[in-house]
Amino acid sequence: MGRVRVVQHSGLRRRALRRRVLWGGGEVFVTVGVVLLLLVVHQMWWTNREARQGAAREVRALERAWDGAGGGSLADVPATTAEPAPSRGAGGSTDPSAGTRRRPAAETSPEPDWSRAYAILTVPRLHLRVPVAEGVGKTGVLNKGYVGHYPGTQQPGQAGNFALAGHRNTHGEPFRYINRLVREDTVQVETRSATYTYAVDRILSQTAAHDGGVIRPIPRSTVKPGHGYTEPGSYLTLTTCTPEYTSKYRLVVWGKLVSMRPR
Question: How far apart are CA 240 and CA 177, in angstroms?
Answer without folding.
Answer: 10
